[in-house]
Structure formats: structure tokens, C-alpha cells
Design goal:
Elements (H helix, E strand, L loop, with lengths): L3 E6 L28 H9 L8 E6 L3 H7 L8 E4 L5 H15 L4 E6 L3 E2 L2 H18 L2 E6 L10 E11 L2 E10 L4 H10 L2 E11 H11 L1 H12 L4 H5 L7 H6 L5 E6 L3 E2 L4 H4 L5 E2 L2 E11 L4 E13 L4 E5 L4 E5 L6 H10 L7
């Protein structure tokens, strides 16, 4: 049985969590809701299944110091730094090369650094089953999340034929991947019970994923071969890797994809509103504050850990206070925070981003 490795992708800026998430200390490296940093939570829930020496973290150069501070116990050689960001297909391909150096055709599981899991034990059980399925079938396995609402902000996958059971979990083929749907389509997906959320968690052997690069991203495959035989050529070959997501570049093209429906309390922690579910209840909503006084206020999200906050006659607000910036917005506009960060960059206000 091949060894199981974990690749944690920790290169995103987390702009929707501005002003707490910044270029040099992004979302995965901060505490939201009074808990330990999100990346450390990700590492901790993997440790009972994957030892620290087999956990690889990949990040960007402008946030490597923050990631290093948070990723306690991860060996320095397991911290990979991208020359620059080029989406998930390049970083997963490079991760497969580096993991492949350490073992003969190991199994690797890929996880975003910034998700929340309510039931870590069930999560580990699903990952172990996915690893067993990947080894037995040589397929790429994606962990699908059973939808709980007609969500329009996620991609979906359509569940196909049942192919077997590993680790007590039932696996199916994937009929197709679907982009973020409109509200009516999302409701139809929920009611039809044949679609899962695509959570960006994948398991495969290094041989299987390298074969997939050769079949669907041959230009990337050639660059990865050069990097494998000459690690010092990473920067020289990085620009030759296709700047695309693993979903679009490989998964949506391959017919050898399996999925396992999972229900372990998953949240993508994509916005302040989504993060509220993991924050303590306070008067007037949820959040982390030094003290709260509220009158006729409800359903608000407040992050102001060092201040007294008073809420009067307001509902559905997000209030985030930091040393040099203050965000106040309608919770329904949570996806627009990234636009604010883009405008700050355009206006040469990088010190705030």
C-alpha cells in the first residue's frame, strides 16, 4: 500500500476577508471567530491521518513568512513557494512532482487551506476511503459535499453510476461538472439529489495525475518533466505551465473521475457571512468583540476583538474593524469585498491590501 501525502494549497489572498486578510497575512493565516489560524486547523485535522513529514504546504512568496509562522511542525523542506501565482493546475502538478520524489507512486490528497470542517473524524474517514479508491481504480477522486441549500456561489458535479465501496463509503462516477448555477437551477439540483458541491478536495496517485497532465495538459506535462529532472529549473519552466484550474484543465475533460458524497460539516469560509456560522453568538448577531451593546439589532456579523461595539436598529450588517481600516457593508454584498481590494490596488493604496 502506497503512502498517503497531503498537499495543502495556501496561496490565495482571501480578498473577501479584507480588511483582516492582507497580502502579507492572508485569510488562511489569521484567526476568524476567535479560533486558531485556519491553516493550522487544516493541518491539525490531517495529523491523525497524515504525519507532518508527509504534509506539503504550497504558497506564494509574499505570504511565505506568515504561512511559515502558522504551519507549526511542518518541516521547512515541505513548504513550497510558487515563483508567482498561476492557478491550481500548476501548483498541484508541481506538488505531485515533489511528492513523487519522496516515494514510489504515493497517493496524494489535495486540500484548500481555508475551509472549515465540523466533524474532523468523519472527514478523515472519507479521505482514507478516497485514498483506497484512488489506489484501487487509478481514478482521480473528488470529495463532493451533499448540498444543504440552493447555493449559487459553488460549482456542482452530477453523480453517476455507483462503482464500489471503500472505507465504508460509496463511490460513484461523475457524469459532468457544472459551473455556478442560477437560483432556479440550484434549487433543481438540491431537489433532484443527484448533484454535489465541488469542494476542491481531490485524491489520486501521483502516477494517475501525471498521466492526466500528459493527456489533457501536455504542455504542462513537459514542463513538469523538466522540473522533475532539474529542480533548479522551476522558475525557468513555471511560465510554461498552463495557467488554469485543475477543474477546467483536467477534471472537466477526463472520464475517469470518481466522487464520494460527504457530509462532515463543510464550509468554504468564502465570505464574512459564511464565517458567521463558526463565530460565537453575541447580542445582535454573531462575532468576536471586546464588548457588545445592541438594541433592536439582529443578524449582524461583527469582528472587532479589541473594541466595544454598539448596534442600534440595524440588521444584516457586516462590521470588521482593524488597526488601519474599517469595513461596514450589507451582508448580501459579501462577494463585493474583492472589488474594494482591486480598487485599492488600482489607486496605489497597497499598504491597505
Amino acid at each position: 500500500m502506497s503512502e498517503l501525502y497531503a498537499l495543502i494549497i495556501a496561496g490565495g489572498r482571501g480578498t473577501r476577508f479584507w480588511p483582516c486578510s492582507r497580502r502579507d497575512r492572508p485569510k488562511q493565516c489569521i484567526s476568524i471567530g476567535g479560533q486558531e489560524a485556519i491553516l493550522q486547523q487544516t493541518i491539525n485535522r490531517l495529523l491523525p491521518l497524515v504525519p507532518a513529514e508527509r504534509i506539503i504546504v504550497i504558497t506564494g512568496g509574499d505570504m511565505v513568512d506568515a504561512v511559515r509562522d502558522v504551519a507549526q511542525g511542518i518541516p521547512e523542506e515541505n513548504l513550497l513557494v510558487e515563483p508567482w501565482g498561476r492557478n491550481t493546475a500548476p501548483c498541484i502538478g508541481w506538488g505531485a512532482v515533489e511528492i513523487g520524489r519522496r516515494s514510489t507512486n504515493p497517493t496524494m490528497a489535495v486540500f484548500p487551506a481555508d475551509h472549515q470542517i465540523g466533524d474532523p473524524e468523519m472527514f478523515r474517514s472519507v479521505v482514507q476511503g478516497a485514498a483506497d479508491a484512488a489506489r484501487a481504480t487509478n481514478a482521480i477522486v473528488t470529495i463532493g459535499i451533499s448540498p444543504t441549500r440552493p447555493e449559487t456561489g459553488f460549482g456542482y458535479l452530477e453523480v453517476g453510476t455507483e462503482v464500489g465501496s471503500w472505507g465504508g463509503h460509496t463511490f460513484h462516477t461523475v457524469e459532468r461538472f457544472n459551473e455556478k448555477p442560477d437560483p432556479d437551477t440550484a434549487q433543481r439540483y438540491l431537489e433532484g439529489q443527484r448533484h454535489l458541491w465541488n469542494a476542491g478536495m481531490f485524491v489520486f496517485t501521483t502516477d494517475a495525475i501525471r498521466d492526466a497532465y500528459r493527456a489533457y495538459l501536455p504542455r504542462s506535462a513537459e514542463a513538469l518533466e523538466r522540473i522533475q529532472y532539474n529542480p533548479d529549473s522551476l522558475k525557468e519552466n513555471w511560465g510554461e505551465l498552463d495557467a488554469t484550474s485543475i477543474d477546467y484543465g483536467i477534471l472537466e475533460r477526463s472520464r475517469h473521475i470518481l466522487t464520494v458524497p460527504a457530509d462532515f460539516g463543510w464550509s468554504d469560509m468564502g465570505t464574512w457571512q459564511a464565517a458567521a456560522a463558526d463565530m460565537p453568538r453575541i447580542s445582535g448577531g454573531r462575532g468576536v468583540v471586546a464588548h457588545i451593546v445592541a438594541k433592536d439589532a439582529k443578524s449582524n456579523v461583527v469582528h472587532a476583538p479589541h473594541k466595544l461595539v454598539a448596534l442600534i436598529g440595524v440588521s444584516g450588517l457586516v462590521v470588521v474593524d482593524t488597526e488601519d481600516a474599517l469595513l461596514v457593508m450589507d451582508a448580501n454584498q459579501a462577494q463585493q469585498v474583492a472589488e474594494i481590494v482591486r480598487r485599492l490596488d488600482e489607486d496605489s493604496l497597497e499598504k491597505y491590501t
